[in-house]
């Protein structure tokens, strides 16, 4: 019994040596990370978020919970993250809608796309396809433009709703090509595509990941793609720029952001892990199969993308008079 104090002291020392210090245990990340999607489940943003969330979880060894907080064109979920603790455990999938166009569409946007967030990295971009119902007598974008000029105000285009990214992309195409086609807004891409397939509207700009199946089955005709390059899924479809409108680009992009004032060490760690995830063959293949192209950028590059897009879409909103639903 007289040896107990010495034995206990040895055990205490062993426990100290075998356990990491409290500071090491608290190193980021040490618990679940919430990745907020500001749109409903099942859409393009949600698909991208779940793909990146799963890969990020593998990279960091902590669970990543994808949580949908839809409403007001993505501004509800974005505002939620802007006002969350800047500790790296609540992140946002921002888009061209929430961080490019929203500031010009809403008179009182509850957040500042640049000031209230710490950009981490752009993760993917998806071009739109210019698709028409097969009954529209055109085979190329040039022929569509000629038809629209011969019949001003007669052709119609569907969108996911007033002020949505594909509405503004079509307004940009209208002004670039100098054509007059009538906007028919819907509540989401699903209803819009249904009416386009039925021939109730003439055309639509829709992301590759949702319109691709209808193009391949012949139920829609793809005239052009709005990205800077052709899509590997549809290499035969030329870009808008190739068809007489150089410099035209209207893409849907996605990126990860944290609340402003998130420590730079956490932003740098997340950027490193996300870039590694984005460069993995598994994630690249998955996103490319959906018509998306991975983009692994620095926080500074992503910040510049947001600033440039705000300027670009402000001009389109002002010229078209577009308003959010």
Short structural summary:
It is built from 12 helices and 10 strands. The chain is of the alpha/beta class and 325 residues long.
Account of the 3D structure:
With 325 residues, the protein is of the alpha/beta class. The protein has 2 domains: 31-125 and 253-320, Bordetella uptake gene, domain 1 (D-Maltodextrin-Binding Protein, domain 2), CATH 3.40.190.150; 127-243, Periplasmic binding protein-like II (D-Maltodextrin-Binding Protein, domain 2, 3-Layer(aba) Sandwich), CATH 3.40.190. The chain is built from 12 helices and 10 strands. Strands 1, 2, 3, 4, 5, 6, 7, 8, 9 and 10 form a 10-stranded mixed sheet that branches. Helix 7 (165-177) links the parallel strand 5 (156-159) and strand 6 (182-185). The longest helix is centred in the C-terminal third of the chain and has 22 residues, at 299-320. It is globular. The termini are far apart. The model is unreliable at 1-25 (pLDDT under 50).
CATH class term of the largest domain: Alpha Beta
Number of strands: 10
Task: Flag low-confidence runs.
Answer: 1-25
By secondary-structure content and strand pairing, the structural class works out as: alpha/beta
Sketch the topology as an H/E string, one letter per element.
Answer: HHEHEHEHEHEHEHEHEEHHEH
Features:
2 domains; single chain; globular; D-Maltodextrin-Binding Protein, domain 2
Chart the SSEs and their pairings:
Blueprint (H helix, E strand, L loop, with lengths): L3 H15 L3 H4 L7 E5 L6 H17 L3 E5 L6 H8 L7 E6 H10 L11 E16 L8 H10 L5 E4 L5 H13 L4 E4 L3 H10 L4 E5 H9 L4 E5 L25 E9 L4 H15 L2 H9 L3 E2 L4 H22 L5
Parallel strand pairs: 1-2, 1-3, 5-6, 5-7
Antiparallel strand pairs: 3-9, 4-7, 4-8, 4-9, 4-10
Helix pairs in contact: 3-10, 5-12, 7-12
């Amino acid at each position: 019994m007289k040896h107990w104090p010495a034995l206990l002291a040895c055990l205490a020392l062993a426990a100290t040596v075998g356990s990491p210090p409290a500071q090491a245990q608290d190193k980021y990340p040490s618990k679940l990370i919430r990745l907020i999607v500001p749109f409903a489940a099942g859409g393009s943003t949600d698909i991208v978020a779940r793909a990146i969330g799963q890969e990020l979880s593998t990279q960091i060894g902590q669970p990543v919970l994808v949580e949908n907080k839809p409403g007001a064109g993505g501004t509800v979920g974005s505002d939620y993250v802007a006002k969350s603790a800047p500790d790296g455990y609540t992140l946002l999938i921002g888009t061209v809608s929430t961080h490019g166009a929203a500031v010009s569409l809403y008179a009182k946007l509850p957040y500042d796309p640049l000031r209230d967030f710490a950009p981490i990295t752009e993760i993917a971009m998806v071009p739109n396809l210019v698709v028409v119902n097969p009954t529209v007598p055109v085979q190329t974008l040039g022929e569509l433009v000629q038809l629209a000029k011969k019949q001003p105000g007669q052709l119609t285009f569907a969108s996911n709703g007033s002020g949505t990214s594909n509405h503004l992309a079509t307004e940009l195409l209208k002004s670039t090509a100098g054509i007059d086609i009538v906007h028919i807004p819907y509540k989401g891409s699903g209803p819009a595509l249904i009416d386009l397939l039925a021939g109730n509207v003439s055309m639509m700009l829709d992301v590759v990941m949702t319109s691709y199946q209808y193009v391949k089955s012949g139920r829609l005709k793809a005239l052009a793609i709005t990205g800077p390059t052709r899509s590997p899924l549809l290499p035969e479809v030329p870009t808008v720029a190739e068809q007489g409108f150089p410099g035209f680009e209207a893409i849907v992009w996605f990126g990860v952001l944290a609340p402003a004032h998130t420590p730079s060490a956490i932003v740098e760690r997340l950027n490193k892990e996300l870039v590694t995830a984005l460069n993995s063959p598994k994630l690249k293949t998955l996103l490319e199969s959906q018509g998306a192209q991975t983009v692994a950028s620095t926080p500074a590059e992503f910040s510049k993308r947001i600033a440039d897009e705000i300027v670009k879409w402000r001009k389109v909103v002002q010229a078209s008079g577009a308003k959010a639903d």
